[in-house]
Structures are given as structure tokens and as C-alpha cells.
Design goal:
This protein is 23% helix and 17% strand. It is α/β, with parallel strands linked by helices. The strands form 2 sheets. Strands 1-2-3 form a 3-stranded parallel beta sheet. A two-stranded antiparallel sheet has the order 4-5. The radius of gyration is 15 Å and the shape is globular.
Length: 144
Amino acid sequence: ARGIVVVNSSGNSGTEGMVFPAQNLTTGLFTANSGLLGIGSVSLKGMKSSFSTYSAGMSLTAPGEKVITSYPDSRLAYASGTSFAAPAVSGAAALALSTGAASLSPANIAANLRLTATPSPDLLFKGKLGQGVLNVGAFVGRYR
């Protein structure tokens, strides 16, 4: 309602059913293109991370394993979780917004993230990992 994109982690239980607020995508409170996004984690090969929650209502996935992140005492460390996959999607949305393109509504951004996702190679979870894996180049290319 406020015209923003809200990117949420799906959860790290490894089971079916996303956590709040992403779970609202499965309740009918939010449409798939509302601007609310539920993001799961995959490996660099596009396979579902063992810890990633999954759901038929999930929006898409992004790499969330062994992500280099800041750590206390000015160090860097590898970390894994859907909380590391979601920021990749947030960053892609920010890149699109930075173009100043006319068609930057939450619905447009959510739809284009899905449309440009690379299909998931993980057949075990077919239909439960959203529209595929984040493809930043293809997504941002729609706003150039």
C-alpha cells in the first residue's frame, strides 16, 4: 500500500512453510506481485540449501551458502542462511530503482524478478522454490 518492495527470508528450518512475514504469500493476504517477496537459499549450483525453508508460495531463491560477510573485530567470515540470500534480492531491487525507470512499482519489480529468474535445476523441490534463482543481469537489463 505504501509503494515499497519488502524482501523477506523464507526461514532456515529446512522444512516446508515459510516464516512470517513471507508466509503471508501463501495466505491470500498478498498477491504474488504485491511487492512482498519470500526468498529461499540455494547453493552456487542452484540446489536448495539443506537449511532453506521452501513453499509453493515462495517468490524466488538466491545464493545463501558461504556468503562472505562482516564479522566482529573488523574480520570477514563465511556465513549461510536465507538471511544472506534475501539481501542479494534487495540489492537487485536497489539497482533497478537506481535507474530511475518509469515502471518501478512494487508489482513491476516483483514480477520482473520472477520473470528473469533462472529456472532452478533442483527437481526434488520443483514448484516449491519460486520462479527460480535470482538473475541480476537479466533483471536489471529490463530497466536500462
